Amino acid sequence: MKPADIIIRADHILTMDKDLNVVRDGAIVVADGKIVCVGPADEAARKYSAPENLGGAGTVAFPGLVNTHTHSPMVYFRGLADELPLREWLEKHIWPAEEKWLSPEFVADAVELACLEMLGSGVTFFCDMYFYGDAIAAAVKRMGMRAVVGAGIVDFPTATGRNADEYLEKAERFIRDWKGDSLITPCTAPHSSYACGPDTLRKAKALSETYGVPLHIHLSETEWETHELEAKHRARPVTFLDSLGFLDPSVTAAHCVWVSDEEIGILAKRGVGVAHCIESNLKLASGFAPVVPMLNAGVRVTLGTDGAASNNDLNMLSEMSTTAKVHKALAKDPTVLNARQVMLMATRWGAEAFGMGEMTGSIETGKAADIVIADLKKPHLLPLYDIYSHIVYSMNAADIDTVLVNGMVLLKGRRLMSGDEPAIMERAAAWGKKIRG
Amino acid sequence: MKPADIIIRADHILTMDKDLNVVRDGAIVVADGKIVCVGPADEAARKYSAPENLGGAGTVAFPGLVNTHTHSPMVYFRGLADELPLREWLEKHIWPAEEKWLSPEFVADAVELACLEMLGSGVTFFCDMYFYGDAIAAAVKRMGMRAVVGAGIVDFPTATGRNADEYLEKAERFIRDWKGDSLITPCTAPHSSYACGPDTLRKAKALSETYGVPLHIHLSETEWETHELEAKHRARPVTFLDSLGFLDPSVTAAHCVWVSDEEIGILAKRGVGVAHCIESNLKLASGFAPVVPMLNAGVRVTLGTDGAASNNDLNMLSEMSTTAKVHKALAKDPTVLNARQVMLMATRWGAEAFGMGEMTGSIETGKAADIVIADLKKPHLLPLYDIYSHIVYSMNAADIDTVLVNGMVLLKGRRLMSGDEPAIMERAAAWGKKIRG
């Protein structure tokens, strides 16, 4: 008997490995934060012993969900201004609120609420783009989650900087400070091709190459953006970025709603990861991203919630369900975006988009133990014919019972293990009261 | 102090009355199954005393959600066959499964699971269309829910009848048996204009008129149906039904995806209620119903989940969120279908569609106490700026804490009060095992 830290038993283990193996009556053995064995439960029981046993009958285990695009501190603006056009929403509501309220304290408190919400819906890993990266990274690490944290760069002054050079300088310092961390991957995050000029975008790209970190950017979210770019640079956004040498597999681009067939070809050829944020795109009426054409062209499409101010939650299970359904209707074909495909987009492909596919995104020996255990003993999950279908189409956030990141149990029986849940919620209510005025 | 049965206190009471009044720090007083007072909590406390107190700080109360189209026993086929075109799904999977398994016992057991799921997501009232109406009605009544139960009519033989005349005869007996029940409203439910010929539709209409009961029908769900009707009757489905004198305010038509502008005009003019089932329409790739044009034309559009075999759940909160979002993107206008509008469609308009608006659908003195209490003390519901926004865009089924129908507490602390929850779930699992084979 070899010693281990944790043994997880489940009726179904969705490995999301390259053959999409599912282990029935299986076990996952965790030691030193890593998965050391995945296989039949009886076999694991013969080989390993561990002080902590999780899961059990009536559960399913799957890789932690990867939310590839969010602005996590914006949970504090959830529902503050709804049902407005993107520019009015940003310029009249969100930006003024940010100008008035943002601070490292605001961000740190808000990120804890966001992590609590994400863990509670099965997310283990997310990509964040916002201000005060140090405060965000520190809060995420405190909560025990995995994140790619973007150092934001724009061409205009904000509360956190005066101009592009200052943002770039701060980004470099942020990257240096956090590179090599076990949970936080710093990244360069120029806001968009309309908020950053060619010079800034080239410098951001160079910075990312110098330090070997990912690049994250908003790309073709609205039709307005394509017109703006055509007017400014006589090119559509993807074509424009490609002309700068910006696009390659280190880039994850959020949205990609208004991309032409030619641009889809470029995204595929350059190996760019796309963070599809369907609920935000729908709610802001930004449009329908051509996900089926992108997948057919070989683009790695992943899923993101976007910020909770435009969604209005950080629930990846809901994104999965909405994505799977809406694109069937758009394609007039119910066979596209099946549950396995969507599950892959929400797990392994998410990790791969950030160059972290060797480390997480699936349940395989040697990978980090980033694992979700969900309870199948629920009225809406009965009977059970297809486990993938249940996760994508029928499972609710509240069915997520236990979540591990890097082998640490962060949520157990839906209770937060890595922070003070009542205090996080009290702070959220107090900030809400202040912001409401 | 007047005696009452139940006093519900909540931070917010969404009455959904004609002015959409919201009572802050409010109370609802229930006596003899009815609402006898809605107003400020302190006022109610001075006037009434009751043995049972529900709700409290950090809760919201709103009218029970009305699911205007489902086939509740199909929960037992949840996820049995996914991601197939409608006709293949029906003809190769669902109909054979129904032929093999349907019985009054199957239906009774399945309906209890469906009721458990619906209560758990805030539904108090639904419209059902399936076979074995007696078994359905008895099960719904046992569970304490309110339902319009359709006696199904088609032109071809099934397990429950040989021809239209036999279905019509059975429908009449069913209507006689159940008319006047406090919870069950029997209705006439000819399947569709493609499964029923003009003669059958006319007889169904006459039957409904004779007994003064609602009519429920599938209408223009798929493009195929419009072609079929044009080939058979040289008219599109709505126009065809109107030519028979079938359409009036007693009719609630499910789907209405493929309706022309002219047909929308007819639906509005005739006062037909539409049961919009967006998640089923998306998942089966049936298309996008023109909800915004229907609303603009004055059609009373309500919401339904359809059966769990094509959805794959009976979660009205999710239907509300998806409806509000998808139609914004279709209309390219984020201001349409705002949270208040969608909430109205899911509550009072649902009751009105079945001619029951005087009795339920809103929280008003004199109406039946069909009330939902939800818990706002959740990470994904913080902070709170707009209560309607939270219910439509951020609330999950698991936030529903307590549900009353006709003044009876059916769900309390998410525990079923009107049935044996573990037994219902065991039976569901056992049926699933048999069906899986």
- Give the oligomeric state of the chains in this entry, treating copies of one chain as homo and distinct chains as hetero: homodimer
Tell me the count of domains of chain A: 2
Overall mean confidence score, pLDDT of chain A: 97
Structural class designation of chain A = alpha/beta
Major sheet characteristics of chain A: 8 strands, mixed
- Give the C-alpha Rg of chain A: 21 Å
Q: Helix proportion of residues of chain A, in percent?
A: 25-40%
CATH class of the largest domain in chain A: Alpha Beta
CATH H-level superfamily of the largest domain in chain A: Metal-dependent hydrolases
User: What is the CATH T-level topology of the largest domain in chain A?
Assistant: TIM Barrel
Tertiary shape of chain A = globular
Could you give the distance between the termini of chain A? 61 Å
Low-confidence stretches of chain A: none
Number of strands of chain A: 18
Shape-level CATH architecture of the largest domain in chain A: Alpha-Beta Barrel
